[in-house]
Amino acid sequence: MALLKEKDWREMFRLRRTIVRAEQALSEIDRTLLPKGLCESDLSILERLARKGACPVNGLARQVGLTSGSMTSAVQRLRRRGLVETRRDLEDKRVVWVSVTSEAEKIVENFLQLRGEVLEEVFRKWSERERSVLTTLLRRVRKDAEETRGATV
């Protein structure tokens, strides 16, 4: 691995900080749009289930980036609110499947509509080409970071 000069390191840190700050700004917008009583992780769970259908709790935890303990708490909270349903797997009783209710589907649909309108405003001045370039570059950052993480673990 080539050693970077201090100036190059500072540039890499600035780049990372810029990516983080952009994500924070977009997340803050999402937080203002969240339905009352839901947090970002709740919405991530509901979005995933509404889009892909029922899923085992442990697999869902990996997909939305939560620990199994956090996922268990979130599913219980969402279940009490009537937003998800759970059922034991018929063949393996250790596995619990979770799915969204019709009320949750409406919440997700409304949130996505609002988010789409806000994002349309955020990116209104961007050309299709600029959006495409940004998408390509951020996918590359993710891929390279995942490869680097895999090589260092």
DSSP helical segment count: 6
Q: Which strand order does the major sheet show?
A: 1-3-2
Task: Give the radius of gyration.
Answer: 19 Å
State the end-to-end distance. Answer: 16 Å
| Helical proportion, percent range | over 70%
What is the string of helix and strand elements? HHEHHEEHH
The biggest sheet, with number of strands, parallel, antiparallel or mixed sense and barrel status, is: 3 strands, antiparallel
- Shape descriptor reads globular
**The number of domains:** 1
**Count of individual beta strands:** 3
Strand content: 5-15%
**Low-confidence runs:** none
The CATH architecture is Orthogonal Bundle
Name the average pLDDT: 92
Which CATH top level class fits? Mainly Alpha
CATH homologous superfamily grouping? Winged helix-like DNA-binding domain superfamily/Winged helix DNA-binding domain
- Supply the helix-strand structural class: mainly alpha
Give me the CATH fold name: Arc Repressor Mutant, subunit A
